Amino acid sequence: MSHEGIRILSAEQAAREAAKDANRGYGGDQRKLTVAAVTPQKVRVKLTEGTGVEIDWRDGHHSAWTFPWLRNACPCATCHEEREHTGRLPGEAKPKDPNPLAMYQPPAKPLEALPIGKYALKFKWSDGHEGGIYSWDYLRRVCRCELCAPATPQADNPEESHA
Length: 163
What we know:
Low-confidence stretches: 154-163
Distance between the termini: 45 Å
Strand order of the largest sheet: 1-2-3
Order of helices and strands: HEEEHHEEEH
Strand content: 15-25%
Shape: globular
Number of strands: 6
Structural class: alpha+beta
Radius of gyration: 17 Å
Number of helices: 4
């Protein structure tokens, strides 16, 4: 077993790290959510339209995300660490390459969406990535609708849409 990347923190250091994570939208937001708040009543993955995902939650709330926003908010460890290293928030796109001769890269689109048990979705993206498991809890915590946005510090992205 490798211990690479494991750090021993004092209680004070752990509190500072948690506060920093909460301010940056990295899971520090651990407010209690009810079972109804993280249980979808209806999930619409709009692969054919290529637009995004919409969820109606059992508590009556509605959330929606575009596919580019979801790809940029991938919760896998690799993407999370890369965002943390560069200071980006979930859903925030990587900075554009300043090189004027950079190759065009089309936005990632999901090729397939798979249910993971009764608790999550997983996407196979056109850029070859498929490591992220988007749990219902994670998706509810990154909701950017008018009701949730003030409570969750996430990236503002013109490509996202929430109702």
